[in-house]
Amino acid sequence: MKRVDDFRLKFGKKKLVPIMIGGMGVDISTVELALVVAKLGGVGHISDAMVPTISDRRFKTHFVKEKQKKYKYNFANKDKSVVQFDLGQLAEATKLHVGQAMEAKRGEGMIFINCMEKLTMNSPKETLRVRLASAMDAGIDGITLSAGLHLGSLAMVQDHPRFHDVKFGIIVSSLRALQLFLRKNARLNRLPDYVVVEGPLAGGHLGFGLDWAKYDLKTIVNEVLQYFAQEGLHIPVIPAGGIFTGTDAVAFLEDGAAAVQVATRFTVTEECGLPAKVQQEYFKANEDEIEVNETSPTGYPMRMLKNSPSIGAGIQPNCEAYGYLLDANGHCSYIDAYNRELAKHPDGKNISVKDKTCLCTHMRNFDCWTCGHYTYRLKDTTHQLADGSYQILSAEHVFHDYQYSVDHQIALPA
Ligand SMILES: Cc1cc2nc3c(=O)[nH]c(=O)nc-3n(C[C@H](O)[C@H](O)[C@H](O)COP(=O)(O)O)c2cc1C
């Protein structure tokens, strides 16, 4: 019976344990988590979502405060188009975040960064270019392009000296999206180094509609593998979403996948950025307490715990401080939803916005509890303690469980 450890993910001469931990913004997939994974020979991800905020927390910079101060006068204004990111500060924050990870990295594994196109930041092209280039400057091993089609992202950094050295991958949820990406980037003479195929059971935003349950990861992965075989393309294919045991992973690896991307099982590790209290909510969740809803202003459905404090909250939009989801015209659908409710309650009290959420603020505060479909199985991966809480795991333990387990067994911690 095969184990994940019988396979290797190959990038040129590099041979890695074929386990990639997916990016989880905002600082849920921390540098600490990525460092453990790299040390164990796999691929860890950090995320550049809300990186000035992360930098303030970790490096005592004051990017958020400075932005908030600069645009304070606009707080009550519905029009947020004046609220712009300082590109120099964005570059600095990215370099601090990535630089810290790369300097501390030990072992044979790699550290990639997850870059979501949907973080349009009121200036989509300029901010994305700075995010990509700064991560490359700071020595990142690879960049995973996510939450968007990324038709122009590679071209933005084609003149960067590390363009052919950094590994680039894209997350897709259909063969069609992948073909579009390949077609648009054909003239760059640079194929992606890997493709993550994310199915409907993943955490975070989904590349499916509310009919996600009709789709299945295996089918999409096979379509992509067949297409690559037909075209003679040798690009590693990495399935993601609902791969809960080493045995689940082996099934994909035996079918021709190069590695697997996993995340949910790492949300309850010491190295994960989620506060301990929130991790207990993930452990406790039952299947019927998890939903896919449309409260994210990005327009993508998102999976989360039904008791997430973000759902139904009615906070004032905080774009002067954050504003990561403002589109090219300074617009975010939460602002409309909030103002609609404010019109009904002009005193500003008791506002509850049910259809949309202020994702920046709630992700920043770990109040939007996004999770994978199998979060309800996390309780089976550990011990319940005398006080009713669940024992937190180490990332090394979970990584090794994926790497060595057979027969769908899940090793409990000591
Ligand atoms: C808490 C959480 C946050 C996530 N955030 C992101 C994100 O910011 N960007 C992204 O591309 N994917 C995100 N994902 C998706 C994961 O990177 C990964 O592809 C997927 O969840 C793998 O499936 P699994 O969780 O069933 O193992 C997130 C997943 C979780 C569980």
Largest sheet: 6 strands, parallel
- State which percent range the strand residues make up: 5-15%
Placed side by side, the strands forming the largest sheet appear as 4-5-6-7-8-10
What oligomeric state do these chains adopt? single chain
The total count of strands amounts to 13
Can you give the helix content as a percent range?
25-40%
Helices, by number, come to: 13
Arithmetic mean pLDDT: 98
Low-confidence stretches: none
Summary tags:
single chain, 414 residues, alpha/beta, six-stranded parallel beta sheet, three-stranded antiparallel beta sheet, 13 helices, globular, binds flavin mononucleotide
Secondary structure topology:
Elements (H helix, E strand, L loop, with lengths): L8 E3 L2 E3 L2 E3 L9 H9 L3 E5 L3 H9 L3 H8 L16 H18 L5 E7 L7 H14 L4 E5 L6 H4 L10 E6 L2 H11 L8 E5 L5 E2 L11 H15 L5 E4 L5 H9 L5 E3 L13 H9 L5 E4 L8 E4 L27 H12 L14 H6 L30 H10 L10
Parallel strand pairs: 3-11, 4-5, 5-6, 6-7, 7-8, 8-10
Antiparallel strand pairs: 1-2, 9-13, 12-13
Helix pairs in contact: 1-4, 2-4, 4-5
The chain binds flavin mononucleotide.
Flavin mononucleotide (FMN) binds next to β5 and β11.
Characterise the protein shown here.
The chain has 414 residues and is of the alpha/beta class. Helix content is 32%, strand content 13%. The protein contains 13 helices and 13 strands. The strands form 4 sheets. It has a 6-stranded parallel β-sheet. It has a 3-stranded antiparallel β-sheet with strand order 9-13-12, with no helix packed on it. Helix 1 runs parallel beside helix 4. The longest helix is centred in the N-terminal third of the chain and has 18 residues. The model has no long low-confidence stretch (mean pLDDT 98). The site of flavin mononucleotide has 30 residues, from strand 5 and strand 11.
